[in-house]
Amino acid sequence: MFEIVRTIVIRDLTLAMRRRSDVMTTLFFFVIVVSLFPLGIGPELDTLRMIAPGVFWVAALLASMLALEKLFAADFEDGTLEQMLLAPQPVFVLVMAKVFAHWLITGVPLVLLSPLLGLQYDLAVETLGVLLLSLLLGTPTLSLIGAIGAALTLGLRGGGVLVSLLVLPLYIPVLIFGSGAVEANVSGLGETGHLLMLGAILLLALVAAPVATSAALRISAE
Amino acid sequence: MSSRIINWFKFSSPASFYPLAGKLVPIFMAAAVILIAVGLYLSFFVAPTDYKQGEGYRIIFVHVPAAWMSMFIYLVMAFWAAMGLVFNTRLSAMMAESLAPTGAMFTFLALWTGAFWGKPMWGAWWVWDARLTSELILFFLYIGYIALKGAIDDTRRGDRAGAILLLVGVVNIPIIYFSVKWWNTLHQGASIDMKTGSSMASIMLVTMLIMALGFWMYTIAVSLSRVRSIILERERDSQWVRQLPEVQG
Q1: pLDDT at residue B51, as a whole number
Q2: N or C: which end of chain A has fewer CB within 10 A?
Q3: Which residue has the higher pLDDT, B183 or B163?
Q4: What is the DSSP string of A71-118?
């Protein structure tokens, strides 16, 4: 069973490495959105420090949503997905492996780059750490929830726009606690509570989201 | 064949439900018209003027029942979605689909009347408080469901994909509600509390309940008549639909 997880993760990572531009697009989308806000709002550092948590988290939400389209689409088109659904291993495990690989490709680079972008917003070093940690806990949840939307809209016309309509409302708790953690650190309140809530949401999503995703995949690939 | 005395699934077949719904629609519609007329009369002419909020508070009699309905309809849709997935009955998905526009309408009505209430009371059309925000998110969930149904041409896939989305949504609603609540709370506390009883004059409570009941009857009437259209559209190739007098004529 863990053999197949490893196989899928390595396969997806290899595919992503062969087509690096896809990975880069998501990452640079995040960079550009974050860099646009100071241009729109003005370069006062006090204002920037105040809006930074929200800007980073909304940009992360949008970037993760943009990347969803690629989660199952290629496998669906060339028939790989059908073979995966026919495999003797539970679909639950396959979905977990796909989502994990997807998070490694689109989530982790964004998390690692965020402290560097945080410097543009004049965040303190300690706050940068909290931002990194909150994104590290939150982005896997985004991938897990997003996978449900990606599976439901597989192969539909206008799927990309539809995914945003389905998935963004469900992202809201992650957004609230993620930016809340950074905000609490900036304003001197403890960030622990927010981070614990993010962790709790991640655990819940780990259990529940792959079940819904597998059911949705079976329906879409029927 | 069946040893059961009552056949629970008799009306889960579109062919037997269609005439039943046709008979029920006028009854529920009449009840809705009467209840809402009585409720509006009570709310405009009988209920006393609020000593703090003046005449403007009267919008509560539309606002609160609409907000109740908006939440309740989503739960009912999720119930039908679960029934559809478990028993694989076609009618369940049709019921869920027929309720969606009414649910979205009530959510919008609650937001709209809330804005009219907020302007004189709080001095703002919109404040980012927990209940307003979660009502807005509920509206997005309704729109997402309707959009997903609209994008899928295959009815079987559409029914089951919609059902999964509804169930995911219903699991998320409490999480969204509490996260938004902790995020910010400014709204006045709930006026009706199950444990301590109501803090309102009893005539106001009665009026509100009558309005809620009227909205309820309206919802049933409208969704039944909508489900009849959905049945006709989906079963248009079947024999019993072709023999209906309204189809032949």
Answers
A1: 65
A2: N
A3: B163
A4: HHHHHHHTTHHHHHHHSSS-HHHHHHHHHHHHIIIIIHHHHHHHHHHH
Look at residue B4 and tell me if it is in a domain.
Answer: no
B176 with A172: Cβ contact below 8 A? yes
| Domain interval for residue B25 | 20-187+199-248
CA-based nearest residue in chain B for residue A205 = B172
B213 touches chain A (CB under 8 A): no
Domain around A18: 2-221
Positive or negative torsion for Cα B66, B72, B78, B81: negative
Best residue of A91, A141, A168, A170 to probe chain B, by most B CBs closer than 10 Å: A170
Number of structural domains, chain A? 1
Smallest Cβ distance to A208: which of B148, B151, B171?
B171
Residue-level pLDDT at A59: 94
Q: At A93, list the tokens.
A: 């495990």
* B220 C-beta neighbours (distance < 10 Å), count: 20
Q: How far is B246 from chain A (nearest CA, A)?
A: 35
Q: What burial class does residue A42 get, using C-beta atoms within 10 Å of its C-beta: 0-12 exposed, 13-18 middle, 19+ buried?
A: exposed
Asked if the Cβ–Cβ distance from B144 to A222 is below 8 Å, we say no
Give the pLDDT confidence of B21-79 residue by residue, as tens digits. 888 999 999 999 999 999 998 888 887 776 666 777 788 889 989 999 999 999 999 99
Assess whether pLDDT exceeds 60 at residue B185.
no
**Interface-testing mutation among B74, B133, B156, B179, with chain A (most A C-beta atoms within 10 A):** B179
Number of domains in chain B: 1
CA nearest to B137 within chain A: A169
Confidence grade of residue B8 (pLDDT, cut at 50, 70, 90) = low
Q: Is the pLDDT of residue B249 over 70?
A: no
Residue of A nearest to B173 (CA): A170
